[in-house]
Design a protein that fits this description.
The chain is an alpha/beta fold. It contains 18 helices and 24 strands. The protein folds into 3 domains: about 250 residues, Aminohydrolase, N-terminal nucleophile (Ntn) domain (Glutamine Phosphoribosylpyrophosphate, subunit 1, domain 1), CATH 3.60.20.10; about 170 residues, Glucose-6-phosphate isomerase like protein, domain 1 (Rossmann fold); about 140 residues, Rossmann fold, CATH 3.40.50. The longest helix is centred in the C-terminal third of the chain and has 19 residues. The protein binds fructose -6-phosphate (F6R). The site of fructose -6-phosphate (F6R) has 15 residues, from helix 9 and helix 16.
């Protein structure tokens, strides 16, 4: 969702902001803007409108020297996407310019109380913040006016603020929405996502809630001060930047999604190296929390929730631990009756999903133990849960999650395996086979592209499977619908005949996933049911149970690990279908990579 970037330093600030906004595009947005100080003429300039960052980049006048700038990509919450609602926003006097991520819940009350006379030019809650700062700056120093404003705000915010009176200062503040300060040799860059810091910062600091940053310049040196909301200085322990430009490029692939699909064998190998090799293992503390729990509660959304379903199956079947899985947005408002000694597991690629954050707040308020499994170690959920496990998928830029999903499943498998009193297989051998089996199907992706062209591009589609394959079907259906916009449902194969089979007609694509021996016969029965009604069937099966007519046959791996393999052809099916339909694959409409509003 919305992204923000700000810079004060010796380099051309607008270049850094435009490059940062481009790197943040993957998060999803509908408008963008930039506000900067034209050094030569000592004036401030704004570009903002509905539309893509590349329009901003194309229209931008690159002649200006500038060293202070802020930029924004907006995903509309208050007010539709248009120029007036795009950020930055300004106070009535034009003294302050601001960009904002998040949602202010009490903006109407604040308007009535303090800003009744201010004519607003947008429908956003952000304009209230910037006018409050202006209002309080009439009697307070700017930093105090900002802190006073923050003390009144209820909701979430990551803010960058410019006071045009002083173009050598940049202010920032955050609560609930992520914000990071990056320090490089030529200046300070502040952004809502570590991606925007890549290439400009050697070290960075993820900010805690209710902190305020003042970046300033003294004798050509740029530095920042960090304080809490009452003005008390906070420690600034910096982390080393461990992402380089190559990690966030396309490496010759046409799309990030294809690159990320093809990276999955390496992700499995990386996870093995981090958690299985040279005596490394999952932390004892986390294993102990699982062992002491009477029940595990997994909380997640979308693709991460599908990984949670697979995790439930693995933990219950391999480790004999009871597990429940919750949709995060439901959990936050309708928490379950919790067993004694629960352990809450939050699964999130981004570590920033607002629905999970609300659930975690509830869990913490009840003093229950929690674990976050995520790809982003500095994320809010990673920092706020008691325990944290990194999935080591590497930056995932395409909005549709692929490699993070398999990494989440692999981590859940490792947990189940380590907890098992009797090991059902050799994890090293089986995970190595998984990486090879993934390579094998990825190498045959041209074949899948042809299959898709011949059979699949229709207006709706079904995935069917049983047991673990059912969870793969849920994930496969989500992937196909989110990037191709084809209506797709994942069904438990036996459930279709209880109503939904009425939708099967001549040529309706039905993709069956069969990896579990005990369910092979039954699922093939369901295939015949839909074939009889005219469905165009594609079968994805494992070599040891395949039928000669199956279209996609995968290398055998242990049944418990099959979800790591069966999902790969479904990702490729989604990708090639969307390619044929000329969809915006890496940035599907209406979607955001990191869903930071509830
Ligand atoms: C789909 C997808 C989403 C996310 C969901 C949760 O491809 O990526 O369904 O899984 O928005 O996001 P995270 O995992 O970041 O909490």
């Amino acid at each position: 969702m919305c992204g923000i970037v700000g810079y004060l330093g010796s380099e051309k600030a607008s270049d850094i902001i435009l490059s940062g906004l481009t790197k943040l595009e993957y998060r999803g947005y509908d408008s963008c803007g930039i506000f900067f100080h034209d050094t030569d003429n000592d004036r401030f300039i704004t570009y903002k409108d509905k539309g893509r960052v590349h329009h901003l980049v194309d229209d931008f006048d690159y002649q200006y020297n500038n060293h202070l700038a802020i930029g924004h990509t907006r995903w509309a919450t208050h007010g539709k996407p248009n120029q007036a609602n795009s950020h930055p926003h300004f106070s009535l006097s034009q003294r302050f310019g601001i960009v904002h991520n998040g949602v202010i819940d009490n903006y109407l009350e604040l308007t009535t109380k303090y800003l009744a006379d201010v004519p607003f030019s947008s429908e956003t809650d952000t304009e209230v913040i910037v006018n409050l700062i202006d209002y309080f700056s009439k009697t307070l120093a700017v930093e105090e006016a900002i802190r006073k404003t923050l003390s009144l705000l209820e909701g979430s915010y990551a803010l960058l603020i410019i006071d045009i009176v002083n173009p050598d200062i940049l202010y920032a503040a955050k609560n609930k929405s992520p914000l990071l300060v990056g320090v490089g040799s030529k200046g300070i860059i502040i952004a809502s996502d570590v991606m925007a810091l890549v290439g400009y910062a050697d070290h960075y600091l993820p900010l805690e809630d209710k902190s305020v940053v003042t970046v300033s310049k003294t004798e050509n040196q740029y530095h920042f001060e960090l304080k809490d909301i009452i003005g008390k200085p906070l420690p600034t322990t910096m982390l080393e930047m461990n992402i380089v430009m190559e990690d966030i490029g396309k490496a010759g692939y046409s799309h990030y999604m294809l690159k990320e699909i093809c990276e999955q064998p390496s992700v499995i190998r990386k996870i093995m190296a981090m958690y299985l090799e040279n005596g490394s293992s999952l932390p004892d503390k986390i294993i102990q929390h699982f062992q002491e729990a009477n029940r595990i509660y997994i909380v997640a959304a979308g693709t991460s929730m599908h990984a949670g379903f697979v995790g439930k199956y693995l933990l219950e079947n391999i480790a004999q631990i009871p597990v429940e899985v919750f949709i995060a947005s439901e959990f936050a408002y309708n928490p379950p009756l919790v067993e004694k000694n629960p352990y809450f597991v939050f699964i999130s690629q981004s570590g920033e999903t607002a629905d999970l954050r609300s659930s975690l707040v509830w869990v913490k308020s009840h003093h229950y133990q929690s674990l976050t499994i995520t790809n982003v170690p500095t994320s809010t959920l990673a920092r706020e849960a008691d325990d944290f496990l990194e999935i080591y998928a590497g930056p995932e830029i395409a909005v549709a999650s692929t490699k993070a999903y398999v990494a989440q499943v692999a981590i859940l498998l490792l947990i189940a395996y380590q907890l098992a009193s009797r090991k059902p297989f050799d994890i090293h051998v089986e995970l190595s086979r998984v990486a090879v089996a993934m390579d094998a199907i990825i190498d045959r992706r041209d074949y899948i592209q042809h299959l898709v062209r011949d059979k699949l591009v229709k207006h709706n589609c079904f995935y069917i499977g049983r047991g673990l394959d059912y969870f793969t079907c849920l994930e496969a259906a989500l992937k196909l619908k989110e990037i191709s916009y084809i209506q797709t449902e994942g069904f438990a194969a036996g459930e279709l005949k209880h109503g939904t089979i009425t939708l099967i007609e001549e040529g309706t694509p039905v993709i069956a996933v069969i990896s579990q021996k005990t369910m092979n016969h039954a699922t093939r029965g369901n295939i015949r049911e839909v074939q009889t009604r005219g469905a165009e069937v594609i079968v994805i099966s494992m070599s040891d149970i395949h039928d000669v007519t199956d279209q996609i046959v995968l290398m055998d791996v242990h049944e418990y690990l099959a979800p790591l393999i069966t999902v790969i052809p479904t990702q490729l099916i989604a990708f090639y279908t969307a390619l044929i339909l000329e969809r915006d694959i890496d940035k599907p409409r209406n979607l955001a990579k990191s869903v930071t509003v509830e």
